[in-house]
Design goal:
By secondary structure, the protein is α+β, with helices and mostly antiparallel strands. It contains 13 helices and 18 strands. Helix 3 crosses helix 13 and helix 11 crosses helix 13. The structure holds zinc ion.
Length: 465
């Protein structure tokens, strides 16, 4: 990666940022005091209050066309600044202002909605996920507008209040407003970096397919003393089928499963090898007795860059206390796959069904129902916005970011990619031990202030890319 052409900030901006820190922290704390728990109906008004608070803040920061957009659930907050002039790129900044519930409350060292600074950390629900990270970008815009009157790029903020409950409102709003939300790149700060000194860019998220396998035998449950040995037990048949979903080397055995999978490039494998996570860390984190997975790939590659198939649940027959000598009429399993580019998430269910029906004995009927699917997203490392992101991190942290692929899925990323077709930059400022969704959620304050600077640096770097 090229060394940054412009490591320093404008002196006026720099001194503004230094003197603004205290006020930025106080404002963030005001926002964090609003218990915007999206899943609990008794907090509906608080969620709205948090949306209004943000809209006010966006206006005072200098953003224009600020509005709170009602949805069937919680409102979306929008605001923009579009005066960067002909040819300037447009950045869509996504975030969410809703938070997770706080229980178990007794495990919090300070009340979740009374922000408390201890050492370098700010403790409060939502401090890292995602109010603090989103606020950093509002503060970045405010600082640049306050000192120079104009931003180098156009920006659009799109902030939802339903991220923790499935993003339903945004999933409907976004495809219907593609013109209004049109941009060159989407910036999402809702992830963590590796350590306070080591930034991380997530350039890929896996997709998902989830479904249910049913194996049907006799028309109703049977007495095993009367029919055992003469009728195929669906539990047994299901076990045989599930066991056939992988081969001995940990590969998924469903024919066609890997056909469209993009092979890892040598440069990607080199980049992923920089992620400081291996078998030892995996065993420590999970308590598993040994690592497992597809032969020929490292732990990081298996988690982020290779597709998987997991059996999430299996049931059938009698599972209560005591016993019942039954041959069940039916056995079922919940199964899900994590997918990588260019696997077709809508085709996986049929693929698994075809395979299982092919290998199933005549003695049972097998079917597979799809419950959910979404494709994987990957942003190529060499697109100019990705390079700008890396330079922005480097300018502020003094360290090259590590590039990694995340094992999970961020559903809104799929909606953004499908509706707007633009690359997404996942540039977080959280830390792995921020206790997201758990008691004592925190934000590391030095990273918060760095986050503001990274937001500014990114705007500057995007026009020099
Ligand atoms: Zn979040």
């Amino acid at each position: 990666m090229n060394p940054s052409p412009n490591p320093a900030f404008d002196p006026d901006l720099d001194s503004f940022l230094q003197s603004a820190q205290r006020g930025q922290l106080e404002e963030l704390c005001d926002w964090l005091r609003i218990p915007s728990i999206s899943t609990l109906p008794q907090h509906k008004e608080d969620v709205e209050r948090a949306a209004d608070w943000l809209a006010q803040k966006m206006k005072s920061a200098g953003l224009q066309n600020v509005e709170t957009v009602p949805t069937d659930g919680h409102p979306i907050v929008y605001g923009d600044w579009l005066n960067a002039g002909e040819g300037a790129p447009t950045v869509l900044i996504y975030g969410h202002y809703d938070v997770q519930p706080v229980d178990p409350l007794e495990l919090w060292s300070s009340p979740p909605f009374e922000p408390s600074v201890r050492g370098d950390d700010l403790f409060a629900r939502g401090a890292s996920d995602d109010k603090g990270q989103l606020f950093a970008h509002v503060a970045a815009v405010e600082a640049v507008l306050a000192t120079s009157g104009a931003l180098p790029v156009n920006v659009k903020f799109l902030v939802e209040g339903e991220e923790e409950v499935g993003s339903q409102g945004l999933a409907e709003y976004l495809p219907s407003e593609t013109e209004k939300l049109a941009a060159d790149v989407c910036l999402i700060s809702d992830t963590h970096i590796l350590s306070p000194e080591l930034p991380l860019i997530i350039y890929g998220l896996r997709g998902i397919w989830a479904g249910e396998i049913s194996v049907r035998g006799p028309a109703h449950d049977l007495h095993s003393g009367m029919f055992g040995g003469a009728v195929h037990n669906p539990n047994q048949a299901l076990s045989t089928l599930l066991a056939a979903l992988h081969d001995r080397s940990g590969r998924v055995a469903v024919p066609g499963f890997y056909d469209d999978v993009q092979a890892l490039t040598p440069s990607e494998r080199t980049a992923l090898a920089q992620v400081p996570y291996g078998d030892a860390e995996l065993l420590q984190e999970t308590g598993a007795p040994a690592a497992w997975g597809e032969e020929g790939y490292t732990v990081t590659e298996r988690i982020g860059a290779r597709p998987t198939l997991e059996i999430n649940g299996m049931w059938g027959g009698f599972i209560d206390e005591g016993f019942k000598t039954v041959i069940p009429a039916e056995a079922r399993a919940k199964v899900s796959c994590r997918l990588v580019p260019d696997q077709d998430s809508s085709a996986i269910g049929a693929m698994i069904e075809r395979y299982l029906q092919q290998i199933a004995p005549q003695t049972v009927d097998v079917s597979v129902d799809t419950l959910q699917h979404a494709p994987a997203t990957v942003v190529p490392l060499d697109v100019s916005e990705m390079q700008a992101a890396a330079r922005a991190y480097h300018r502020v942290f003094g360290a090259e970011p590590v590039f990694s692929r995340e094992g999970g899925s961020i559903p809104i990323a799929t909606v953004v990619q499908e509706s707007l077709g633009i690359p997404i930059l996942f540039m977080g400022f959280g830390l792995p031990d921020d206790n997201l969704h758990a008691p004592n959620e925190k934000l590391h304050l030095p990273n918060f202030y760095r986050g503001i600077r990274v937001g500014i640096a990114l705007m500057e770097e995007l026009i020099s890319s």
